[in-house]
Design a protein that fits this description.
204 residues; 84% helix; mainly alpha
């Protein structure tokens, strides 16, 4: 854990003020998180001291929150300046939202996550993110089928899952075929170079 925090702190060091403002807003942020972050940033927290501090449950919890914020800051700041095209940015955004929705389901929330699922599904269908469509449609199928007993919508999402499973498998097959072709061309090129090299040796 100490090594991870040190690495994340250094990765985020150009964005130190941003991290500080984020963690100040968390519970016990000013009291525990900010001092802990500044000690790490300034190299004033060695591993033995860190290990001793984290034996306390409250400090251990603060460390987990700090690590979460550091990961969040690094990921999204890099996403902002990554130069991703629209499709890649949309893919990252969709998966990020899907993770958040699953967390809400884990806390027994129902109505809002279902609306979020529909929004994610719409964007995923627009770009053809087959794997994500399958994941989200499974959740919607469960909700409308098992919980609401809506057979029409259950069938709708069941059919959607079947459709995109076929598409996903087709894309995977094309990808495998392309990789096999690349490998074949690479081996041919290598063999050709070896033959030419051998011929040159004979001529010498």
């Amino acid at each position: 854990m100490w090594e991870n925090l040190i690495e994340l702190t250094h990765l985020n060091s150009p964005k130190g003020s941003r991290v500080t403002s984020l963690i100040e807003g968390r519970p016990s942020g000013k009291d525990r998180l900010v001092p802990l972050y500044r000690q790490l940033l300034n190299g004033k927290l060695d591993k033995p001291t860190f290990d001793q501090l984290t034996q306390n449950d409250t400090t251990a919890s603060a460390v987990s929150i700090l690590q979460e914020e550091l990961i969040h800051t690094y990921f999204f700041s890099n996403l902002e300046r990554s130069g991703f095209n629209d499709r890649k940015s949309a893919e990252v955004e969709c998966w990020k939202n899907w993770v958040a929705v699953k967390m809400l389901f884990g806390k027994s929330a129902m109505v809002f996550p279902q609306k979020a699922c529909l929004k994610i599904l719409k964007q995923a269908e627009r770009y053809g993110f087959h794997k994500l469509i399958i994941e989200v449609a499974k959740q919607l199928r469960l909700y409308y089928g098992a919980q609401l007993g809506d057979s029409k919508r259950f069938k709708k999402y069941d059919d959607l899952i079947r459709l995109h499973k076929r598409k996903y498998l087709r894309v995977k097959k094309i990808s495998r075929d392309l990789n096999a072709l690349k490998l074949s061309l690479l081996l041919r090129s290598k063999n050709k170079k070896e033959i030419l090299s051998g011929s040159n040796q004979v001529l010498k």
